[in-house]
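Incident log, support desk, overnight shift.

02:14 A customer reports that sequence design results differ from what the structure should imply. Their input is reproduced verbatim below. On-call engineer (initials T.W.) acknowledged and began investigating.
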């Protein structure tokens, strides 16, 4: 660990190799841990950090100014959400490469250098994603095929994939399963939680589409592919992704609302990238399929919430059981 700081705000643009872009909303402690992990495991070449605070009320901006004064901080007066905030950050980027990085991540040694090196060596690469790890070190399902009807049945959110993750149909959508995890490979999409792109290609592709939240990374990878570039997965570079820890999925209503919005954004993706004509019977089949998909996910989520409540109740009763210390 070198504990290296980003370049100063007034550094010449030509000196900066990497721009790390982070947006946040009321995640002060996660942001502090994320920034500290970058300082401890930095790129070996000049880099900058651009952070957009989406009107946080928990003192995030004040913490960044005090503890990480080198960070280029931009604060919005309203919460404009992920795509808008990252587009603002993209407009400020001065590096030859940009890294979209979630605030609930921890950068591990050499991850940034390995991704930069990969993009330098692969001019056909429009984006590269790294291996994302859960807090316990297991691999997240973060490299996939682009959204399609079969992914609803065998993809990351399907019950079949959760119960039987090694089936041959899910392997066509969850691309890390059964792969040699020492070698990079072409992907349909890589997670926007940590994806690096050449700035020149970003300028060619354009901004993130603010009409998406879910599938914003799929939409961007599809647009990269439409321009003739490839998205790669680099499993030898790793970043821990805490995956909504302390974020927007902390309330029961938010978790169930996210299920509904996932189907809405799935339909938007279908209309933008898959539907070929304005009027087609297929769109009604898609709507029906998304409705059944929602019901299945809602049922599974209900069971998960009941198990969570049961576990919480058991934990609360445990100290009062006879024979146990208070």
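02:41 Re-run completed on a clean worker. Output:
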């Amino acid at each position: 660990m070198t504990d290296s700081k980003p370049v100063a705000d007034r550094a010449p643009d030509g000196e900066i190799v990497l721009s790390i872009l982070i947006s946040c909303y009321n995640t002060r402690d996660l942001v502090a841990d994320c920034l500290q992990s970058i300082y401890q495991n930095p790129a070996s070449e000049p880099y900058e950090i651009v952070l957009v605070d989406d009107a946080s009320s928990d003192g995030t901006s004040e913490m960044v100014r005090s503890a990480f004064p080198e960070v280029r901080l931009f604060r919005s007066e309203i919460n404009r959400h992920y795509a808008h905030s990252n587009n603002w950050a993209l407009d400020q980027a001065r590096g030859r490469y940009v890294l979209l990085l979630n605030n609930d991540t921890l950068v591990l040694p050499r991850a940034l250098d390995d991704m930069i090196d990969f993009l330098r060596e692969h001019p056909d690469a429009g984006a590269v994603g790294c291996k994302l790890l859960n807090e316990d070190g297991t691999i997240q399902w973060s490299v996939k095929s682009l959204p399609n009807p079969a992914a609803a049945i065998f993809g990351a959110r399907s019950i079949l994939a959760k119960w039987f993750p090694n089936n041959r149909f899910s392997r066509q959508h969850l691309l890390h399963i059964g792969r040699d995890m020492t070698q990079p490979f072409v992907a349909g999409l890589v997670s926007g939680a940590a994806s690096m792109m050449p700035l020149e290609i970003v300028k060619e592709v354009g901004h993130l589409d603010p009409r998406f939240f879910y599938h914003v990374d799929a939409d961007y990878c599809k647009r990269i592919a439409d321009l003739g570039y490839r998205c790669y997965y680099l499993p030898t570079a790793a970043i821990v992704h805490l995956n909504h820890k302390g974020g927007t999925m902390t309330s029961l209503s938010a978790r169930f609302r996210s299920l509904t919005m996932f189907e809405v954004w799935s339909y938007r993706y279908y209309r933008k990238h898959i539907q070929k004509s304005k009027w087609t019977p297929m769109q009604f089949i898609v709507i029906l399929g998304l409705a059944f998909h929602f019901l299945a996910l809602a049922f599974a989520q209900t069971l998960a919430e009941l198990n969570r409540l049961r576990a919480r109740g058991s934990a609360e009763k445990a100290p009062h059981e006879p024979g146990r210390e208070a």
